Amino acid sequence: MSQQIQVSSLDAYYGKHKAIEDISMTIEPQSITAFIGPSGCGKSTFLRTLNRMHEVIPGARVEGKVLLDGEDLYAADVEPVSVRRMIGMVFQRPNPFPTMSIYENVAAGLKLNGRYARSEMDDIVETSLKGSNLWNEVKDRLNKPGAGLSGGQQQRLCIARAIAVKPEVLLMDEPCSALDPISTLAIEDLMSELKNQFTIIIVTHNMQQAARVSDRTAFFNLAGQGQPGRVIEMDDTSRIFTNPSQKATEDYITGRFG
Amino acid sequence: MTAIQHAPAIRRISTGRRVKDKIVQGLVYLSFAIAVVPLLSVLWLVLSNGFARLNMEFLTHSMRNIGARDAGGGAYHAIIGTLEQVLLSSVISIPVGLLTAIYLVEYGRGGRLSRAISFFVDVMTGIPSVVSGLFILAFWILALGMPFSGFAGALALSILMMPTVVRSAEEMLLLVPNDLREASYALGVPKWRTIVKVVLPTAFTGIVTGIMLAIARVAGETAPLLLTVFFTDSINTDPFDGPQMGLPLYVFDQSRRPTDVAIDRAWAGALTLILIVMLLNLVARLIGWWRSPARR
User: Fold this and answer.
1) Which residues in chain B have their CB less than 8 angstroms from residue A51's CB?
2) Which residue stretches of chain B have pLDDT < 50?
3) If you average pLDDT over residues A38-55, what whole number do you get?
4) Within a domain: B16
5) Boundaries of every domain in chain A
6) Does residue A59 register a pLDDT over 80?
């Protein structure tokens, strides 16, 4: 489990519009990396390039290299589907499949990808739900629809669904922005547990959250009005929040803009 | 009273507005009543006139060897014909329509081909039913030399049914939130499996409703059958060979005859057609209910 990601000079486009430019970074395994920055600066776009979800949008394309343990995810003969099996994703809004039960939601990634014995599936569903701290709340109603859970529970269900396929990396795109403080805390605790098994990358607008959970932080910003987004600074979280090397980072963190 | 003068921001609803509100409300109720009148009167007429002849004999006998003035006889041959023709046209148009809708929503995405398809589907929606009958008559029966048959009728009906299926399925697929597709892709599920296992089940109930509406529409079509299925008074269970009957044709045929017994048969035929369509709708509702997640 858990592998290193190396990105070198990556550009991403929506049609002719260049959304992010020249991003290079190394993301260590078994750590939590946070992306912060003002809205529209390309954090989510960059996150989606890491598991080739960016190209799902019509007209979107990527230039540059993303290496997962040395293997280029954008090599010509790499199948995007297999990349997404290695690198799971949790979205901003909880999106359980409405036609499926809680059990089927967690098992969805396995069921849609191949055949498993019933007992094996039961085990994976149980460990995934335990891994996302949801097991005790739902173990008596696994056959009820997943859409009937509360927002925070739905988001943890989505995390269980993502870790059930045993990815190497877990991408989280503002996973707590639609949740109340208690559910947010539950998910932050969960992240700290999960980082023992996965490389976790989280996009967040909540700077306290980034400071609380992450080991490394990258600050994104636009180079200027109408210009593509760039990484201004990336460092250990403690350094970014106490002694950033760039003026823009300090301004953003202290709330002077954004 | 003085308090109101001190707070002019809070306004009382004037009598004029109350009156206007009541008038508009009354107009809405009135137009609803007017819209319902024809529906109720049709239902009432068909029910009261149709039940006179709707019995087992009517449902199990054909019109073979029934003389012009004889009572008796039934619509068995027409019921069989309608069921077979509608089934065949569904078998043709549901897969084609559904796949077209999937292409338009999931793959085409506003490209040149999908815009062209959309345009022609719109054109097809506007085809008068008699024209589709004429087309099959000219192409299938006259040019290719095929016989009059239930299948020819089904071809004409499927021309009418296809655009309805495409449009309704397209609407339903567009309602499926993109979040679900992305959630599925992010699990490493290929696109086609996402469509089959996530998108279609989510839109299932709506698609079934749309298909039922399309079936209900073609089940009552007379003109295309007139030109393709022809007429018969005998039972013909083979939709691929020889003239068949259909319930709309039966109603049309019987109602032209100058005797009261024939008119009664026409009413009973109309009632049977309504009952069949209602039954199909009921089945569709049951399937929708059975598949809905709220049932668990």
Assistant:
1) 186
2) 1
3) 91
4) no
5) 5-94+168-253
6) yes
pLDDT of residue A2: 66
Name the residue range of residue B108's domain.
58-295
Highest mean pLDDT among A82-86, A142-146, B94-98: B94-98
Q: What is the CATH architecture assignment of A5-94+168-253?
A: 3-Layer(aba) Sandwich (3.40)
CA distance B90 to chain A (A): 26
Cα–Cα distance, A204 to A175 (Å, whole number):
8
Could you tell me if residue B3 is inside a domain? no
Residues of chain B in contact with residue A113, where contact means CB-CB under 8 angstroms, are 187-189
Lowest-confidence pick of A69-78, A204-213, B44-53, B61-70 = B61-70
Rounded average pLDDT over A81-102: 91
Average pLDDT, integer, range A197-210? 91
Whether A112 and chain B come into contact, CB under 8 Å, resolves to yes
- Considering the domain boundaries, does residue B14 fall inside one? no
The closest alpha carbon to A155, from A95, A201, A106, belongs to A95
Contact B253, B83 (CB under 8 A): no
Closest Cα in chain B to A50: B186
> Strands A5-14 and A60-68, how do they pair?
antiparallel
B182 vs A contacts (CB less than 8 Å): 53, 56, 91, 95
Per-residue DSSP letter, B75: S
Is B185 close to A84, i.e. CB distance below 8 A? yes
Structural tokens at position B256:
């032209």
CATH number of the domain encompassing residue B123: 1.10.3720.10
Q: What global pTM score does this model have?
A: 0.85
Interface predicted TM-score (ipTM) of this complex, two decimals = 0.89
CB pairs under 8 A between A and B: 81
* Chain A residues in contact with B194 (beta carbon < 8 A): 112
Average pLDDT, chain A: 89
